[in-house]
Amino acid sequence: MSAPHQDDIDDAPEMLDAEDALEEVEDGDGDIAMDSDDEQEEIILQNDSVAYFDSHKDSVFAIAQHPTQPSLIATGGSEGDGDDAPGKGYVFDTSPVVGRPVLPASYNADPSSQPPKSIELKPLFTIEGHSDSINTLAFTLPNGEFLVSGGLDGRLRTYQLSVDARNKPSFAFVAESQEVPEVNWLAACPSPKFPNTIALGASDGSVWVYTIDAADASNPMQIVQSYFLHTAACTAGAWSPDGAFLATVSEDSSLYVWDVWGEAAAKNLVNDNGQTVVSLTGQDQRFGVEGGLYSVAIDPKTSFVAVGGAGGAVKIVGLPRLGSDSQPTSSKQSKAKAKGVEAGSAQGGTILADLQTQSDGIETLSFSNKQPLLAAGSVDSSIVVYDTSRRFAVRRHIKEAHEEFSVVKVEFVAGLGDGWLLTSCGMDGVVRRWDVRGAASSTETSLVKEWRGHRGDGEGGGVLGFVEGTTGERIVTAGDDGVVLVFEA
């Protein structure tokens, strides 16, 4: 056999000698742990709630509170995994919830004892009959005789509340109406002259007003008005505090303030269409907001309406003054009254301010009932408070109020803090309360307290709404995580 060629030797695989194979090589840096796909991130859970309600199997989109029995809470959402999952809601009572002690744990007789656990709440009534998600709920005013649910199936369903001799509430279905493709929002008329009246805005742009009368078996849900001037989805609506006007906004960047009861028409203060006291659309370049309008609120004195929309736009529009129904007793008073009507008529529809402090859509607006303040919550996670007595100057700009997540709702606490306290919730899953006193340049923090317990991070988490009554002492939330939590202030 001939000897192997040198090239064949070079191409052969290298082999270790037996002695080399037994040699240990020391690593001065020590062993290096291999990466693992099973690494777990430590998550610290915090739950500040005193009670919870978890009967929902999916996101809770809507929440409402009874006006005279604030412990009665209604919630609504979707059930099931499919896109066509039927809507479902519940009514429960928070009165059995006992608040946690005010003193810190160190004052307890046994400091090592665990804090009280959150109480589980059970449903009193189940809201059914919808074929798609319940995304809006409202109790009628002034006494909460009826609960109304609106869904993405276009159905408007009404339930009557009864309370027995033992003060136990019960609900009975009254009637339903289905005039629209989807119900976007509900708002109860606050006027005692027109009790049990509800307004809705729909995905087709229409606006409807119903009065509920369970005694009329043939027509318990009576259509009072229907309006069709919006050309795109009606995104929000608000009654004036006296119930005379209904303001609605739309994705088409239009604002209409409806003279629902004809009080302005009786004083010749309506527009040419005979239906509105304010008609502004995107065709007016001074008013147009590219991307549409998504929030609306009317100030406590019914002097002006605020609307919020895409790009952080906030616009303030004057409203006509209806004046007093009493007759003047002198010619001087007659002249003064005439001038007042003329001033009110001239003011109606006038753009008083065009504000843009925030950088993204305005999802929520709220007026203080005791201070000249307007709060705006934005998708850019900030809250801005304007001073309405000083030409809407910025009083407070709370940047990253909910970290990098959208602000879903802001609301001034009606009966606490002299009108300076503001509650907010966001897609970070946190509820916060702010004290908005002080100048805009103040370096002091505005945060008074915060409550945690919901999953955040925006996906499958966040707080989609809350109610806090007039005192603000107890906050009940609607969670995108399918949980309702009760917090003590």
Keywords:
489 residues, mainly beta, Methylamine Dehydrogenase, Chain H, four-stranded antiparallel sheet, 39% strand, globular
How are the SSEs placed, and which strands pair?
Blueprint: H1 6-11, H2 18-21, E1 51-53, E2 60-65, E3 72-78, E4 87-93, E5 119-120, E6 123-127, E7 134-139, E8 146-151, E9 156-163, E10 169-177, E11 183-188, E12 197-202, E13 207-212, E14 221-227, E15 234-239, E16 245-250, E17 255-259, E18 276-280, E19 293-298, E20 304-309, E21 314-318, H3 331-347, E22 351-355, E23 362-367, E24 373-378, E25 383-387, E26 393-398, E27 401-404, E28 407-412, E29 421-426, E30 431-435, E31 447-451, E32 463-467, E33 474-479, E34 484-488
Parallel strand pairs: 1-5
Antiparallel strand pairs: 1-34, 2-3, 3-4, 4-6, 7-8, 8-9, 9-10, 11-12, 12-13, 13-14, 15-16, 16-17, 17-18, 19-20, 20-21, 21-22, 23-24, 24-25, 25-26, 28-29, 29-30, 30-31, 32-33, 33-34
Organism: Hypoxylon rubiginosum
Protein name: WD40 repeat-like protein
